[in-house]
Amino acid sequence: MEEVVDSRSVRRLKTNRWTGALPLLPFFAFTGFFLLWPVIAVTIRSLKGNKNEWTLANYRPIIHSGPYFHAFVTSIKLSLVTSVIGAFIGALFAYVVVKYAHGKFGAVLDSVSAVFANSGGVPLAFMFVAAFGVEGIVTTVLKSLGWDIYAGHFTIFSFTGVVMVYSFFQIPLMVLVFKPAISGLRKEWSEASINLGATHFTYWRRVAIPILLPSFIGAFFLLFAGGFSAYATARALTVGTVPLVPIIIGTLVDGNVISDQANLGDALAVGMIVVATVAMSGYIWAQRAAAKWRNQ
Amino acid sequence: MAESMKQKYFKWSLVSVSSILASLIFLFPLLAATIYSLKGKNGQGHSFDNYLWLVHQDGFFPNLFITLKLAVLAAALNLVLMVPTMVYLNLKGQRFKSIVDFICILPLIIPVVSLAIGAQVAMPSLLQNTEYELVFFFVVIALPYTYRALDTSLQTVPLKTLVEASRSLGASWTRTIIRVIVPAIRGGITGALFLTFALSIGEYTITSLLHWETFPTWTVVAAQQNILGAIAISVFSFVGAVILLGTIALVSRKSSSRVEVEE
Q1: Is the pLDDT of residue A32 over 90?
Q2: What's the mean per-residue pLDDT of chain B?
Q3: Rounded distance, CA A46 to CA A60, Å?
Q4: What pTM was estimated for this model as a whole?
Q5: How far is B29 from chain A (nearest CA, A)?
Q6: Which positions in chain B touch A24 (Cβ < 8 Å)?
Q7: Is residue A54 part of a domain?
Q8: Same domain for A38 and A65?
Q9: In chain B, which residues have their Cβ closer than 8 Å to the Cβ of A18?
Q10: What is the ipTM, given to two decimal places?
């Protein structure tokens, strides 16, 4: 008898659970169709050969050394360098903004960094050509001061050039992401440690930095994922002079490069998802570690 | 006394170092591009020629119109989809929050290039034959930002009390959402709306990989004929974005400060 009652209440709970999700149906249907289904579809096709047979052959060029492997190395290197630059300089800026920019000025700085952080598009590339191109304003001014930046190997269309351009949106992105962590540093903590006889240096080494570290690492991973996936700026700037994975996928899609493997582009796309997922797992893990302090 | 002097020094040097660094990194390229874009014919003198050149190009108005149309549709669809979803999540569907939260982070994880390739594979041809398919993907790309904007704003209002009051006075659900909740989270909605709009008008990756022509992709093509004109439009869109987002910041600041006063 009891069992029957039990199972019935369980069933009622179950139907409640499903009807409870009903108002979310549009959301799940939308994201299922326009977000998850494309990812599943590209993964399936990346596992198909030219004759529609199941194979891992599309992934071989990525793992073995060659242009596609090299593209992954270059992309990862670029994201690493720009997110290190972005993370350190951005953290400094975030600290200064939180500490010394209040009120309206702070709000303006907020929206300016939001614009700059989301500026990784086409306009950014052209602006840097205007500044650092062969005939760019900064190039000309520096030349008249006796420093020809084009004397060596540098061009704005090279790896170093792309690093400069990417830093332009990585630094403000870091400011946006890292600011809440610095605002979360309580005044009581620094006062308490100073009262206990610590110097400012000890406070930073023993209290502030350990607390900020998870947020810092998390932000770094977020920057990495963003830099790794960026497409528009590099595309408009380099037109393929720096071999980056997204750019190569773009040329495959446009039919500018023909590969004897029809679904190679799909495998590259899935490869990008894998790298980005690793980076974002780092981000989510670090976020959890950082939340420990915020909830206390 | 010595300690506070030291601190003042520290503060002063920190602020000046970061100001110099910031202007080197951000101000110089912007200034350089602005000066460059104002160059006259053959680099002689200064004029607005480059700005006017672009306006007189064939594709300027049609492409601008398409971009604006898609952006408006994306912002509207985003709100229709996300406002009820977020309200429900914060009101009754708490246990689904973590999964919706996770789905909304996915567009940051899945590279847009990969999403574009997937869209080519997965979308029915009916959809692939119309430029309106872009609207759906603009909404997807905006999801992480919309989620945050709406969620933050919903958490600052006493949602349950508002809904109970409205319902017990006999208002229907639709009426409650439109007349009570929407005005209460005005700030978050404006933020979500403008963010989607801003992301959509600048979107290049998905648009170009799906072979559609909008304003940003057209700019790249136009740049191949006249780099000065391309720089002019870049400066123009950058300044436009600063003004747009600056306005949002001030508007949402106002509405959020009002909520604080009421509480």
Answers
A1: yes
A2: 84
A3: 11
A4: 0.85
A5: 5
A6: 85, 88-89, 93, 96, 100
A7: no
A8: no
A9: none
A10: 0.85
